[in-house]
Amino acid sequence: VPAEPTGLVLSPDGSKLIVTCAAPRSTVLVMDAATGHVLATIPAGHTAMSPAITPDGKWLYVCNRFHNDGSVIDLAAGAEVVRVTAVREPVAAAVTPDGAAVFVANHLPDDRLDGYPVGAVATVIDTQTRQATAIRLPHGSHSLRGLCVSADGKYVYVTHLLSNFELVPTHVE
Questions:
Q1: Cα(63)–Cα(65) distance, integer angstroms
Q2: Intra-chain end-to-end CA distance of the chain, in Å
Q3: CB-based burial, 22-58: b 16+ in 10 Å, e otherwise
Q4: Exposure of 66 in the CB half-sphere (CA atoms within 13 A)
Q5: What is the mean pLDDT of the chain?
Q6: Distance between CA atoms of residues 40 and 32, nearest Å
Q7: What is the C-alpha separation between 136 and 158, in angstroms, rounded?
């Protein structure tokens, strides 16, 4: 691969392996899953990672960590069609089983650390309108690393750290 691989996803029919390769000008490789032959190379944003594919296999969503957005890629055309703004350093994405939404984990909060609340945000992208909304996580949440959607689509699970920003640094709990 042309740069550090930062994520991969298999197409729903199992015929293609899609790999994100991180760089300031990242690439997304679409490969034949059986042979490893590169079928397409698609440009993406800074530090592309965590590809997520819709259940119909038509659309790919890629987190562009240091551009604070996500690429929406038409796999049939082999091209990015639009970018959707995330909050801050999107690092993981998952598509709901019905393909209606993409959930994105933003690594860092976008709040001032001397204010209240300080909490990370998950971005939700409507796949029809490509509009993004935010879900604020509890005060103290940060360093989101991954997320997944339950098989029935009712729940989204996010891994993150939880800190108490109001404790005096000499306090031991």
A1: 6
A2: 46
A3: beeebbbbbbeeeeeeeebebebbebbbbbbbbeebe
A4: 7
A5: 93
A6: 10
A7: 12
What CA–CA distance (Å, rounded) separates 104 from 91? Answer: 7
Max CA-CA distance within the chain?
Answer: 57
Q: How confident is the model at residue 166 (pLDDT cuts 50, 70, 90)?
A: low
The amino acid that residue 20 corresponds to is: T
**Residue 153: what pLDDT?**
96
Residue written as token pair 């209606």: 100
Judge contact between 50 and 63, C-beta under 8 A: yes
Structure token digits, residue 160: 């993150």
Give the whole-angstrom CA distance, residue 81 versus residue 107: 24
Tell me the two tokens of residue 69: 């957005």
- SS3 (DSSP) at 36: coil
